Amino acid sequence: MDAFTVHIGTALPLRRSNVDTDQIIPAVYLKRITRTGFEDGLFAAWRNDPEFVLNRPEFDGVTVLVAGPDFGTGSSREHAVWALQDYGFKAVISSRFGDIFRANAGQAGLLAVTVDGDVVNRLWQLVEDNPAVEIVVDLPKSHVRCGDLVADFDIDDYTRWRLLEGLDDIDITLDREAYISTYEENRPSFKPATRLF
Amino acid sequence: MSSNLLRTMSEKVWDEHVARAVPGEPDLLYIDLHLVHEVTSPQAFEGLRAAGRTVRRPDLTLATEDHNVPTVDADGPIADPVSRAQVQALRDNCAEFGVPLYSLGDVEQGIVHVVGPQLGLTQPGMTVVCGDSHTSTHGAFGALAFGIGTSEVEHVLATQTLPQARPKTMAVTVEGALPDDVTAKDLVLALIAEVGTAAGQGYVVEYRGAAIEALSMEGRMTICNMSIEWGAKAGLVAPDETTFAYLRGRPHAPAGADWDAAVGHWRALATDVGAVFDREVRIDASTLSPFVTWGTNPGHGVPLSAYVPTAESFPEGPARQGAERALTYMGLSAGTPMREIAVDTVFVGSCTNGRMEDLRAAAAVIGGHRVSSAVRMLVVPGSTRVRLQAEAEGLDKVFTSAGAEWRGAGCSMCLGMNPDQLAPGERSASTSNRNFEGRQGEGGRTHLVSPVVAAATAITGRLSSPADLPPVATGA
Ligand code: SF4
Predict the structure, then answer these.
(1) Which residues contact B256 (CB under 8 A, 6 or more apart)?
(2) CA dihedral sign of residues A23, A20, B456, B417
(3) Containing H/E element for A102?
(4) Least crowded by CB within 10 Å, which of A176, B16, B101, B255?
(5) CA-CA distance, B395 to B397, in Å (whole number)?
(6) Pocket test residue of B35, B66, B129, B418 for ligand 1, highest count of atoms within 8 A of CB
(7) Do A27 and B150 touch (CB under 8 A)?
(8) Are B431 and B412 in contact (CB under 8 A)?
(9) Do B86 and A31 touch (CB under 8 A)?
(10) pLDDT tens for residues B311-351?
(11) Is the ipTM of this complex over 0.90?
(12) d(CA B385, CA B418)
């Protein structure tokens, strides 16, 4: 995973709430066994509409998504995160995320930034007034800047550290293998195994 | 958080699985059972391969084919080459990494959340994960069960653990008794309509109270299944005699002295009297009636006897805008009685309502009636075992002689990944768990219902409950 420090880019104002992961990428795009190439599935049903915000030329090249509350609810498909990344998004800003989506984003290196609903409203306004305005997503300072607006965001220390360092979770855990072995030695014998002996 | 002395059930299960705890870091949680399917695992296995890693505990891992498989002609090769390649990748990966797999055609194949419980693999006090959000189903046994993404699937394959922040606890207490024809599905739809789709975020929820204790394991699974639909990390129910009776004698359930040791342990999991939850919700089951959804998230539910709501009845802001969008997408006008909504398709199945009890309930309503000529009804058992048992009981004949289609096991129209899809503009009554835009096929419109409402709807062609049906002529 690449490290995330400060990202500066233009933004897409997605004025929708409850954007579940079925909307972010429909199930028919989930048949692939690769980890890249999901950008064509991003918001696939909505992109059939020429008026859909992502289809508007002034939002070409956006890298920050500003969405309504409850973004990424529903299905656990990490493909939703991959589709956003494959399209070019580096960060998503919302007032509330589905828990699994936020965890997946943290795993894959997409920054999911939780801010107050009125910060989202102000960002939408700023971006709609001027689609070329740049948003700064600053992980070391844990804040978002746009024009005069500076808004702090919360992110748990562990995810923040991993993203800043670009660390692989599995490597971290494998360094702690001794704890796992000790735990396994003490597991009760009545716990089931998936093979019948 | 409650004191160290008095703990809730989920805290006890959590504490028993912490392999490493350090202040300021997530706990390293040991995973007892890792369920795998074809859609969210290929990139995880590929990651292992690229890093030269192995599966740490294949004996605690089980794979099945469910999301992407056809429900007709299960014996032949899968027609869609992309689907076929994905299923083949699972077979190759399981063979390479030594993971047990129940493939299409195997008697144990089925939807992952139906298969685990039916094998007796899902037991109280376990941690269960799967690359699927409805892993919450397994909480019905008093297991801490939650969905994960593909990177986490890889993590569990490699380490049998997951770093996890301790969740908050919530109790949903359901007092009273459910009236006739009101099922676990209606209860959970009513709950979500009441609290909203985000109320559970960050919480593990314990469902308790007289109405929950009175439910079968199937009913409890239906409720826990939909925990994720209101944002909860997991939902669980305290194990009791109903749980033990369900588990006893199942292939993977403990036997002999192990059984006694296990039951002793399971009984001790119950939430301590006086333990404090971070939040509590109360519901009176006796006030409930059949519930159906009108919109595009599971919180958009109303009693079947009610009307399509107006957008203005929602608070100004995102909720109202969402309701406006939902009304447009669903092609509904506010004020329409829910009972007047006509459907093209009825789907009975999924990990929410695709078990024996669900099929028996739907068949009991269908028996002696005909499916409306305007309706296509699909009945898709949750697992091959469920299919075989239903066929042994003659339920397949009840459905097919009424004009319904009887299928092989899988997720099918729950997510429309295989050919079982709605066409644009088509409307379904579905016993599944998600009425999201396009979930059952692009442009498809979904109303979530219980199995008995699904069956009654298939007969009348409009959203209906069994009470709306004419009596079946008996005798000659
Ligand atoms: S039946 Fe539906 S909800 Fe359940 S696992 Fe399959 S796709 Fe997911």
Answers:
(1) none
(2) positive
(3) helix A99-108
(4) B255
(5) 5
(6) B66
(7) no
(8) no
(9) yes
(10) 999 999 999 999 999 999 999 999 999 999 999 999 999 99
(11) yes
(12) 21
